[in-house]
Amino acid sequence: MAGSGKIPAVRIEPGKNKIIIQLPCNKDLIKKVKTIPGRRWNPKGKYWEVPYSEGVIPKLQNLFGESLIVNPYFHLIALEKELSIRKYSIRTIKSYMRYNRHFLLSTGKKPEEIENEDIRKYLYYMVEKKKVSTSTLNIIINALKFCYEGVLKREFIYEVKRPRKDKKLPLSKEEAKEMLDATSNIKHKAMLMLVYSAGLRVGEVVKLKIEDVDVERKLIRIRGGKGRKDRYTILSEVALKTLKECLQKYKPEKWLFPGKKKDKHVSTRTVQAIFEKARDKAGIKKNATVHSLRHSFATYLLESGVDLRYIQELLGHKHSKTTEIYTHVSTKNLSKIKSPLDMLGGEEHPE
Predict the structure, then answer these.
(1) pTM here?
(2) Is residue 328 annotated as part of the catalytic site, yes or no?
(3) 18-22 and 10-14 strand pairing
């Protein structure tokens, strides 16, 4: 309103590789917008669009001055771009974006206002209130660290001590058998069998294609596993038999396990739900997840005397230290250790 002394607000919001500029019907502001290279008017949304590029926000701040209101989530555009450039998986990008959005929302602050105490309070909230697992908490720490140190170049003194991962026992061979026996659906059984018999991640089994199963060589090809690395793992004869029944019944065209839409593979959540149903039906009380089957695969190989380096290759671990976490659950060598009491050779107890 002319003569009121109020500065007309100009709001900018992040869009898909673009910036959305919302401004009132003001001749001076419209004139300024028209000086921006690549700007475009969106008649349906009734806003201006500007291509996003590094350094465009400071330029807009100089152009509109105090009238500009910047959405605090703008730095997430740079975050997503950096993650894509570094070839992070779609799953990792989504989780990093989600946790950074949630973090900002919980603090109610702008990115430049974030302090170490805000991060500590957020992590405490996620552990105490949301009861996130140790692995999830580590993902959150990595997401915040990547964003604030890697992208925004903030000089944080990261004083967050990473907790040790929870040591969960794998399923025994008997428990795994009970679960598989409790699964009547042939497609569901084939999925669980492949995870257990080949040590697959849940994200790997859902993305298997028909040509990834090498029947002749009894191998399964994993395309672009964790770390974007291809590898081969073993194909069980028993799993193959069940898989052939599954293929004969459902006749998939592309994905080994298609979802409701044939051009899409089954989701990881569906596989987790299948596992939980089988676990509960088998009466197993352990707090096990579908990943426990992969854990059991590694433990079984270790107890069977397979060299740790081969297990590392089959599991697709980049570092041997990751594979070594399975050694704490192996009972093979423990059973061979003699108690010092037993070594007394049946001597009589002293009076």
Answers:
(1) 0.58
(2) no
(3) antiparallel
In a domain, 160, yes or no: no
Task: Give the contacts of 7 (CB within 8 A, at least 6 positions apart).
Answer: 66, 67
Specify the number of domains making up the chain: 3
Could you tell me if 100 and 225 lie in one domain?
no
168 located within any domain: no
Alpha helix (H) residue ranges in 182-267: 186-198, 202-205, 237-250
| Catalytic residue chosen out of the listed positions 201, 207, 265, 295 | 201
> Among residues 226, 231, 265, 279, which one is catalytic?
226
Report the CATH number that the domain containing residue 97 is assigned in CATH: 1.10.150.130
CATH code: domain of residue 192: 1.10.443.10
Q: Has 162 been annotated as catalytic? A: no
CB 174 within 8 A of CB 216: no
Tally the residues of the chain: 351
The pLDDT assigned to 3 comes to 40
Residue written as token pair 């500590």: 120
**317 is a catalytic site residue:** yes
Catalytic residue among 188, 231, 265, 294: 294
Residues of the chain scoring pLDDT < 70: 1-8, 157-169, 225-228, 319-351
Assign residue 56 the CATH number of its domain: 3.40.1170
Residue 294 falls within a domain, yes or no?
Answer: yes
Catalytic: 294? yes
Active site residue 52: no
Q: What is the pLDDT of residues 269-293, one digit of tens each?
A: 999 999 999 999 999 988 888 988 9
